[in-house]
Amino acid sequence: MLLLKNIDNPRSAELGFYEECGGYEALRKAYALTPGRIIEEVRNARLRGRGGAGFEAAVKWAMAADSPIPERVLVCNAEEGEPGTFKDRELLVHKPHMVLEGMVIAARAIGAKQGFMCLRYEYPEGRLSILKAISEAEERGYLGRNILESGQDFSIKVHVGAGAYICGEETALLESLEGRRGQPRIKPPYPAAEGYMGLPTVVNNVETLCNVPLILVLGAKAYSEIGAPGSPGPKLFPVSGHVCRPGLYELPMGITLGELIFEHAGGVRGGRKLKGVIPGGISTPVLTADKLDCRLDFVSVRAQGSSLGSGAVIVFDERTCMVKVALRTAAFFERESCGRCTPCREGTGWLRSVLERIEKGRGRAGDLELLGEVAENMSSTSFCPLGVSAGTVARSYVDNYREEFEAHVARGACGLPMAGAL
User: CB neighbours (10 Å) of residue 113?
Assistant: First the structure.
């Protein structure tokens, strides 16, 4: 293990323990390199963002670093609101100095003096851990003024959100950080060119930033040889649902879905059959049980019609009512829609109401076609990924489990013994 090494040690969050384990050595290396050389290392390592989109980190960094505007900003996105995802929480609570080290290295690379930690409201333990770590790092000279006597400064402010899922989207996060309602912006311009207060801004996920010290310690070549060629490095996989050993697993990118579920998470609980898997949090389309050979990397999961997303794997056994799962997912998206665009604002409500009608046994002929039409409209016209995901995900349940949906409409009931969702 690399990211989760010693995470169970009661001292894992302490600065002294982190230093004993080699912590902040990567930062010393970073200050011995030019900013351009750091970006080159990250580019050669092919680090892709771990927040969901999988965008190459070095591309963002280079865009901000090359800006003619001298003042740049770094934002750590810790708004982990994706249901099924709990990886960043563990890093914030147990590895806060790894998060900070990654931030300071990134700031060195792009020339930022100001950083923000945008933290989910529901993570009070993470907030306390990060605040303590910031204080310790400042006292030791790893953060604040004149870092490692380099003459360079970088400070971090902690910004606690109000629990809005949409603020996981980077531009909505910046709107919230500037004191406005969290709603996505039009792109371009991208944040790396014009972000916080109009300044070049790099927004990276917690897990993404924690990979940065590893790259400098291991070297780009060694790092790029971990996992899948197109998506290298270690990956954190939160696994939940009907498995024997739910938890957080660190494995090389590109392991198969079957290996994760059956070798690491202990298989399906109670010896029951696998029915379906969500591979990357509920905003990613569901995969059927015949997709266990799918490799968990950005390229392979997309080839199967879904997305790696945050890497949060949710497992369903044979007793699960997929209509109910689809309904709960649609209800979540309806509640979390920011309401900015009509396709998402109205479409999420339509999806929820039609699915609710089917689930409660009042389904009508043509309801599945109606779901498909609404989902297609949302996927093709919504302003931001929330509406796109809501439509795409709803369609994946209907397409992959159509017979089950048709049975609900025909019988006016589920028909599965002890049917339910998670």
Answer: 15
Q: Contacts for 128-133 with beta carbons within 8 Å, 24 or more apart?
A: 129/13, 129/92, 129/93, 129/94, 129/96, 130/92, 130/96, 130/99, 130/100, 130/158, 131/158, 132/13, 132/96, 133/13, 133/15, 133/96, 133/97, 133/99, 133/100
pLDDT in tens, 27-56: 999 999 999 999 999 999 999 999 877 889
Q: Where are the alpha helices (DSSP H) in 233-321?
A: 257-258, 298-303
Contact 51, 168 (CB under 8 A): yes
| CA–CA gap between residue 133 and residue 311 (Å, rounded) | 27
Spatial distance between the Cα atoms of 283 and 302, rounded to a whole number of angstroms: 13
Strand 231-232 with 227-228, pairing = antiparallel
The Cα 18–Cα 132 span in angstroms is: 14
Q: DSSP for 342-358? A: HHHHHHHHHHHHHHHHH
One-letter amino acid for residue 170 of the chain:
E
How deeply is 297 buried, as exposed, middle or buried, from its count of CB atoms within 10 A (0-12, 13-18, 19+)?
buried
pLDDT in tens, 165-202: 999 999 999 999 999 999 999 999 999 999 999 999 99
Residue 313 and residue 277 in contact, taking contact as beta carbons nearer than 8 Å: yes
Would strands 227-228 and 201-205 be described as parallel, antiparallel, or unpaired? unpaired
Preceding peptide of 188 cis, ω within 30°: yes
